[in-house]
Amino acid sequence: MGLFGELIEASGGRWIRGGLTAGLVGLIALALVNLNWRIVGGLDFAVLWQYRGALAEGLVMTLVLTAAAAACGMFFGTILAVLTQVPLAAARWFAIGYVELFRNTPILVQVLWIHFALPLVSGINTSAIVSGVIAIVLQASAYFGEIVRGGIRAVPAGYGEASDALGIPVYTRWRRVILPPAFRVMIPPFVNMTISFFKASAILTVLQVGELMTVSTRIANAIFKPIEILTLAALIYFLFGYAISQSTHWLERSLARREGR
Prior knowledge:
The chain is mostly helical. The protein has a single domain (51-260), classed as MetI-like (MetI-like fold, Orthogonal Bundle). It has helices at 3-10, 14-34, 37-41, 52-83, 89-103, 107-122, 128-154, 157-166, 170-200, 212-223, 226-260. Helix 4 (52-83) packs antiparallel against helix 10, helix 5 crosses helix 7 (128-154) and helix 10 (212-223) runs antiparallel to helix 11 (226-260). The radius of gyration is 23 Å and the shape is globular.
């Protein structure tokens, strides 16, 4: 039972649930009464069918960006997390500085700086999609680095001490002893962060990279149907975000089966 459910049970159970249900029904009824039914009745979602190809391409681009954020972010985040555990002070400070920089600045600022300011400073020009991928991977690495660091700290210290006592090499110790149990702890926050970057990919519409939000706004501006197209885009984000969230259970069951062998 979640914290909210426990609070309800501790505060009177059925009475609280009944009150919340009545309040929710009241809010829905109030919203229905105040809807502009003339506008609602004039909505035409059927017209969006002819743009299914463009929307599918935008969705694929969004999923590619999400996969890049998750895979590259996890890879580089793991490196950053390991660097925070090594005895070399310079490596620890580099990892900490990187994480703090990219966690505490908005991704919109990072996207615009990488695409517009970085070429002026470095002389290296990048396309919109490359700039978007770089920005989202850099920020994902910082967040995933903290997730991995938390997972490593959750591993009992005895694992590392036993590895030292047995003379297991450092690389093998991290790969076979410490990281596997740490990754099991990281599954829920990893999936949650992946969903966050799936939604955050919409910010790349400022660079017109062709992801779902960019395609949706282009279609909305072309056919003057903003309510229909943005409602559909929101539904697509919800459905795929929900599907990603449900993958948590699949990953946990898969790991449990492996451990049971």
